[in-house]
Structure formats: C-alpha cells, structure tokens
C-alpha cells in the first residue's frame, strides 16, 4: 500500500456521505485538491475534515490566506461547532506567530514574496507537525506568483515538502482565477480531486452537488452526488447504485387485508415488485395504497409513506374516515409518514432517505405519493427517469413492496398519463376510472398487467366509504373504459349501493 500500514491507509473525511462515495475515506499522507466556486461548501467540508482529526486525537492545522480566524469561528458557530484543537495559522498575523514584535505593522500576504510565504507555512508545519492540513486558498498564491509557471512550480514544491511527513493535505481552490477554469496542472499534481458545485434554480433554494474527479488507487462512486449545507455540516447523498445492494428474500404475495382486492392480483403484489396506481384524482389510488400499508403494519412489517402532494394531517383524517386507522401504527413506530417538499429536497436526498428507511428501520413496504411531486424535484426528465429506475431496482433487490401513485391529467373524459411515464418499470399496474350510471358518479378498477403471475382481466366497480374498500362483481355491461369515456348501460342489480355500516 505504498508504504502505508493497514490501519493508516485511509483517513475519514469527517463526512459520512463522502466517505461512502470514497469507499471509506482518503488514502492517508497524500495531497488533495478541493475545488469549487465561492459558497459551494468548501470551508464547511474542510472544518469537518479537521474536526474529525481532532476527535481522533490528531494534530491538525488550518492555514488561511483568505479568511480570518473570526470568519472561521463564525462558520463553526453556525454549525454548533467549536475550533478547539484546530491550529489556525493566518498569514496576516505571521509576525505574531514567529515572535516579531507586536509593534510592527501587520504583515499581509500580498506584501510577501511567494517564496517567503511558503517558508512561513513550512516553518509552521515543522513546528506543529500536524497529520491533517488544510491550505485555504490557492487563489492568494496565484496573486502572489503573478506568473502561472512560477505559481505551479511553487505548488509542486509544496507537494514535495509534504511528501514523507505523514500528513494528509487538502488544497482549496475557489476557481476565481483564470476565468474560473479548472487548472489541469493542479489536477495532475494532486492525488485526488473533489469538486463542489452550487446550482441556482429558477425557483427554490440553490442546489449543491459533489463530484470526485479522480482518486488514485480508489474505486470511488463516480458521477454527481447531491448534497446540502445545513446546521451540523455538509450532508452528502451518494448516488444510488442498485446492483451493490442485493439482499435475499422470498417473493411471496403482499396481501391488502381485503380478499376481493387481493383476488385481482392473484393474492397481492409480490415482494420485491413495484405496483403503479394510476388514474384521475379522487379515484381511490392513495386510499388503496394505504389499505396495503395498514395491513402490513398489522402483520408487524414496518412501512413508510413519502407524501409529496397531500398534507399528512389531511391524509390521516381522510384514511380514518375510510375505516383505515393509521394512528396506532404511527404511535408504535411501525409506520413513518414523511412529508416531502420537492422545492427543498433534491432527488439524491430523497433516495438517501428511502435507503435509511429500508436499511435502518427494515421497512418492507413503501408508498410514494405521487410521481408528479417527485417530478417537481428535478425538471430534467431524462435524469429523473434514470434516478427513479435505479431507486426502484434498489427497492426490488431489497425485497420491498413499492406502490407508486401516478395521477393522470383531467378528472373525467380522455385520460393522459403525467409527464413521467414509468409504467414500463412497474411490475403491476392498477388502473382507476370514473364512470357514470343513472346520474351517479362511480369508480371502476382493473389490472392492466402483473409480471408476478396471473391477474383478473375484468373491470370491477370500486367503492370506498366509511366501511373501507369494497370491490364489486365484474361489470359485464360496462363499455368504453379504454377509450377514456367509460359508460355503464346494464341493469341496476350488479352495482353496489350504500351499506349500513352499523349492521
């Protein structure tokens, strides 16, 4: 391992998500480049890296040419941190560090020759002998050098100085020089390169993402990873790779607790499959999904509902009115209902939250309501389909039964699927429709496909009232459902009427 011991081969970045991306952390005693525009989260990530070293009893050093100690303290306090144990070396106060009288004028970085500046830094490293060093930032070195060749030569000398000193060094570059372009020479010098980006959307907060450009000797997770800056540090959400998360499971049916509903799908959706509930608003999609949730919790299987559209309070009141009482399951912890604001949450964070439910709580059934809300989280449709495909593959390989609610455009008449067509990904598709009979608006349900086995090809009436979910007999005289304008022309007898709930 290039002379490194097994225990010292990798150092944690202090960030769980980034360590996951790096398959454990940074190879120790190497020099790395952390680049990103101002506001992308570089300082926060560097402080996490150094504070992790302090927690492990290591000596750490923060060399700053740009920010003052007061500014760094302010950043730390915003996250509820202290900088205790972190050695701060400000070039603006180098005269005090080296004992030159306080009466002298302040020694500013731009008044120094670049070579003298590096000598001061090297002297401080020799004095403190840190195992983790952050150098913030390279932009000031560019200003001092005034020449690209001289600047790159000094960076190379800096790398050579740290070689063999058992220090893991992070050089910070804010990309403010050379028209904001990345320095290919720096990329070649560094053992690894991590890039942070800040994207401004037309609506909502800025989105941030991370990419590992290179990391020698590490099979890292390539591509972009969503991230967020919140109180407590930088949260990185590693891109989901479903193929790495297969777990053995038995693909038995998942019953709903309503025999007539289970009969439609030959006993229910199989574990490790995805069921798409599609139809107009108000047709009963969410209620049927909650029926499966209640049945799973009653069997002792943890479940989770991710609600994009409806408020949680409204959903719970409505479900209770339909004889689906989720309150006891919420109190017991068997059920978790998460309200998702697509304007505030990135798709990467959403996938990470689902992973935590599955891997930490052992959730066996998940409802996503609805795909329209998920679509609002990221306008780029192609990328969204890829992320949803990976997420569903992950859930399938974990043996989780997934229900996707997909509202269709318009309420009656011709129905059009939403912008995100995931029907080809679904293992089963349940179609809901409205139809009119003798001046009354009624609901119909049918199964379009079921990869898990046989299913009914009939069209049945669906009634949801205070007694719960009911499925009627096949509507043999029902016509026009596939045209989008269903019409019932048969006799009255086959239709379900209101029932006496108290009977």
Written description of the protein model:
The protein is of the alpha/beta class. The chain has two domains: 10-239, Rossmann fold, CATH 3.40.50.300; 244-488, 3-Layer(aba) Sandwich (Rossmann fold). The protein has 15 helices and 22 strands. The protein has helices spanning 16-21, 42-55, 69-78, 94-97, 114-128, 138-145, 148-162, 184-189, 259-264, 285-298, 312-321, 327-332, 347-361, 371-376, 381-397, and strands at 10-11, 26-27, 31-36, 60-64, 86-90, 132-136, 168-173, 192-199, 207-215, 224-230, 233-237, 274-279, 303-307, 335-339, 365-369, 401-407, 428-437, 440-450, 460-465, 468-474, 478-479, 487-488. The strands form four sheets. It has a nine-stranded mixed beta sheet, sandwiched between helices. The protein has a nine-stranded mixed beta sheet with strand order 14-13-15-16-12-17-18-19-20. The protein has a two-stranded antiparallel ribbon with strand order 1-2. A hairpin with a 2-residue loop joins strand 17 (428-437) and strand 18 (440-450). Helix 5 runs parallel beside helix 7 (148-162) and helix 13 (347-361) packs parallel to helix 15 (381-397). The protein starts with 9 loop residues before the first strand and ends in a 15-residue tail after the last strand.
């Amino acid at each position: 391992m290039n002379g490194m011991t097994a225990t010292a081969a990798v150092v944690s970045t202090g960030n769980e998500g980034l360590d996951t991306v790096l398959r454990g952390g940074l190879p120790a005693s190497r020099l790395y480049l952390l680049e990103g525009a101002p506001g992308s989260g570089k300082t926060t990530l560097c402080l996490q890296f150094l504070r992790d070293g302090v927690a492990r009893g290591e000596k750490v050093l923060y060399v700053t040419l740009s920010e003052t100690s007061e500014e760094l303290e302010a950043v730390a306090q915003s996250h509820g941190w202290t900088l205790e144990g972190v050695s701060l070396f400000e070039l603006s106060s180098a005269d005090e560090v080296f004992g030159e009288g306080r009466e002298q004028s302040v020694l500013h970085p731009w008044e120094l020759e670049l070579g003298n500046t590096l000598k001061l830094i090297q002297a401080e490293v020799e004095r403190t002998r840190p195992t983790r060093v952050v150098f913030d930032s390279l932009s000031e070195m560019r200003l001092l050098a005034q020449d690209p060749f001289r600047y790159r030569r000094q960076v190379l000398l800096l790398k050579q100085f740290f070689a063999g000193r058992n220090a893991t060094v992070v050089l910070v570059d804010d990309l403010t020089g050379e028209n904001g372009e990345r320095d290919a020479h720096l990329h070649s010098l560094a053992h690894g390169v991590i890039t942070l980006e800040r994207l401004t959307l037309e609506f909502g907060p800025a989105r941030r993402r991370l990419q590992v450009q290179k990391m020698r000797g590490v099979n890292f997770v390539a591509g972009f990873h969503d991230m967020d800056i919140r109180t407590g540090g930088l949260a990185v959400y590693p891109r989901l790779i479903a193929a790495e998360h297969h777990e053995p499971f038995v693909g038995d049916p998942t019953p709903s607790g309503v025999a007539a509903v289970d009969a439609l799908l030959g006993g229910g959706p199989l574990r490790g499959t995805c069921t798409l509930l599609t139809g107009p608003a108000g047709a009963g999609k969410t209620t049927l999904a909650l029926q499966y949730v209640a049945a799973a919790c009653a069997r002792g299987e943890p479940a989770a509902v991710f609600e994009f559209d409806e408020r949680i309070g409204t959903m719970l009141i409505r479900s209770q009115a339909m004889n689906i009482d989720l309150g006891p399951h919420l109190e017991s912890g068997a059920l978790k209902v998460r309200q998702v604001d697509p304007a505030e949450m990135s798709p990467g964070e959403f996938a990470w939250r689902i992973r935590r439910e599955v891997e930490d709580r052992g959730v066996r059934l998940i409802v996503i309501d609805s795909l329209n809300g998920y679509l609002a989280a990221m306008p780029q449709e192609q990328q969204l389909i890829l992320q949803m495909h990976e997420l569903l593959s992950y859930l399938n390989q974990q043996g989780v039964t997934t229900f996707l609610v997909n509202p269709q455009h318009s309420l009656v008449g011709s129905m059009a699927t939403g912008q995100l067509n995931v029907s080809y990904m679904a293992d089963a598709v349940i179609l809901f429709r409205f139809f009119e009979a003798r001046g009354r608006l009624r609901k119909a349900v049918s199964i379009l496909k079921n990869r898990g086995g046989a299913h009914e090809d009939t069209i049945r009436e669906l009634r949801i009232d205070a007694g719960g979910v009911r499925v009627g007999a096949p509507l043999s005289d029902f016509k026009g459902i596939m045209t989008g304008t269903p019409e019932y022309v048969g006799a009255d007898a086959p239709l379900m009427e209101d029932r006496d709930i108290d009977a």
